[in-house]
């Protein structure tokens, strides 16, 4: 069996240690020394792969010596290119060795670029990378542009579908219900309800309503009021519209058998936005009133009013309207003012069920005998809307 000699083992160990020790070496102007693998010199920087810090970048102006263990492609400030190995002789002179021209003395300060013989020039790589980055940026911008167009398209289509559905079925409505009660020292029961039916198209709005308010206290009736009405608006232009209305009221405790007011007026939108509508109107009408004592009052009347609907946010909407009916015969002493104020808030995800709080006030300058001039009603109702 063959046994290697001690000399052979020594040579193998020496060869291995030599291969391990071989590495590129960089000496800086302060005497610091770095060992590793030179990746490249470009744009005034030297990039070196080291064992202790992985890849490091050094300002090439600080480099005083470079030695490499393999050939590199070296470009000088003169634009000359030489393939060779960087080294330093015994006198400290920097050289390029193993070149086609033999050994060439050089000044490290004249080296502009260094890169591996099988690699692309760093500046070309940088341009290629910049070009690739620009392509990726353009691609991302185009994808975002396409996505934005797609989103805008879907939004427009959904809006058109909603508008189509609204025009296909312009009817909507609501039912409001409320109950109050008390027992003990005072037995009280009250109920109120209101139903509305609406029809709205691009140029026309119609509203029908009916309301009943009833209350009993200690077995005696204390409120019995019935209201009904109709209004129709047709646009003349984007901001102007013609309006016709008829309102009816029966109130036992006001001794009112019937109050009927029919009016025609011209109206204008001062604000007409999705979340805020503010309009006013003025015109002429006729008021008829019949009381329990047989008294009847018939008189041409004026009509002047405004209507505000404001959607504050997705959870709260407010409304307020006021209408003034002055008598033609004595507008300063015989008139009627009706105002409503309130708000509603959805309580379900579909927003079909809501809570509505409202206040209705009516001022009659010439009420029936034993009746108050001001009649105010407060309500808290559960409302169901449908469209």
TrEMBL record:
Record's protein name: DUF481 domain-containing protein
Protein species of origin: Methylophaga marina
Pfam families according to UniProt: DUF481
Coiled-coil annotated spans: 128-163
Keywords of the record: Coiled coil, Signal
Signal peptide: 1-23
Matches recorded under InterPro entries: DUF481 (IPR007433)
């Amino acid at each position: 069996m063959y046994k290697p000699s001690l000399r052979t083992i020594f040579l193998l160990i020496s060869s291995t240690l030599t291969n391990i020790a071989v590495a590129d070496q960089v000496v800086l102007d302060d005497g610091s020394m770095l060992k590793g693998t030179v990746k490249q010199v470009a744009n005034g920087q030297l990039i070196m792969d080291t064992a202790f810090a992985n890849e490091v970048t050094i300002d090439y102006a600080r480099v005083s010596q470079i030695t490499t263990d393999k050939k590199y492609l070296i470009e000088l400030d003169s634009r000359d290119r030489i393939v060779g190995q960087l080294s330093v002789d015994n006198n400290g002179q920097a050289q390029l060795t193993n070149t086609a021209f033999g050994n060439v003395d050089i000044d490290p300060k004249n080296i502009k670029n260094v890169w591996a013989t099988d690699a692309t020039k760093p500046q070309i790589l940088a341009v290629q990378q910049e070009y690739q980055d620009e392509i990726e940026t353009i691609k991302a911008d185009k994808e975002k542009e396409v996505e934005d167009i797609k989103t805008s398209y879907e939004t427009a289509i959904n809006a058109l579908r909603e508008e189509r559905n609204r025009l296909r079925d312009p009817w909507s409505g609501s039912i409001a219900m409320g109950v109050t009660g008390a027992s003990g020292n005072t037995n009280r029961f009250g109920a109120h309800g209101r139903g509305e039916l609406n029809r709205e198209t691009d140029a026309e709005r119609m509203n029908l309503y009916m309301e009943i308010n009833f209350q009993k206290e200690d077995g005696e009736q204390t409120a019995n009021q019935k209201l009904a009405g109709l209004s129709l608006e047709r646009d003349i232009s984007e901001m102007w519209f013609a309006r016709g209305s008829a309102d009816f009221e029966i109130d036992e405790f006001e001794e009112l058998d019937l109050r009927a007011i029919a009016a025609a007026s011209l109206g204008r939108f001062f604000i007409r936005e999705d979340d805020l509508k503010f309009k006013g109107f003025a015109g002429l009408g006729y008021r008829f009133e019949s009381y329990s004592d047989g008294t009847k009052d018939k008189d041409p009347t004026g009509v002047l009013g405004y209507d505000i609907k404001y959607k504050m946010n997705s959870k709260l909407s407010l409304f307020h309207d006021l209408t003034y009916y002055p008598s033609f015969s004595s507008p300063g002493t015989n008139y009627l003012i009706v105002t409503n104020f309130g708000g509603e808030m959805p309580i379900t995800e579909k927003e079909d069920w809501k809570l509505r709080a409202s206040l209705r006030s009516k001022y009659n300058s010439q009420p029936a005998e034993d009746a108050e001039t001001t009649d105010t009603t407060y309500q808290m109702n559960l409302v169901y809307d449908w469209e």
